[in-house]
Amino acid sequence: MNSLFKALNDHTRRAILELLKENDLNAGEIANHFDISKPSISHHLDLLKQAGLVTAIKNGQYITYSINTIVMDELVQWIMKLKD
């Protein structure tokens, strides 16, 4: 759960999740939405993958990233248990 909170604790990573909520994208397509280097985007994507927030599927020379809502559902359930 620590890697999940670490991943969500960054504005850029949250913005990447917002993009992936709309469409699956490759790293280049994601990078086009930001004013930071492609290696920085790759680092953010790696942290999101480690947290289980995104999945990556290799399509030829590209990797397509998608949001993994199952992890978010588990987080919401955990928070709701704390509320009770």
From TrEMBL:
Keywords assigned: DNA-binding, Transcription, Transcription regulation
Superkingdom classification of source: Bacteria
Name of this chain's protein: ArsR family transcriptional regulator
InterPro entries named in the record: ArsR-like_HTH, HTH_ArsR_DNA-bd_dom, HTH_MetalResp_TranReg, SdpR-like_repress, WH-like_DNA-bd_sf, WH_DNA-bd_sf
Keyword ATP-binding applies: no
UniProt organism field: Nonlabens ulvanivorans (Persicivirga ulvanivorans)
Entry-linked NCBIfam families: HTH_metalloreg (NF033788), repress_SdpR (NF033789)
A Pfam family: HTH_5
Domain HTH arsR-type: 1-84
Any one Gene Ontology molecular-function term assigned to this protein's record: DNA-binding transcription factor activity
Membrane spanning residue stretches: none
PANTHER family: TRANSCRIPTIONAL REGULATOR, ARSR FAMILY, TRANSCRIPTIONAL REPRESSOR SDPR
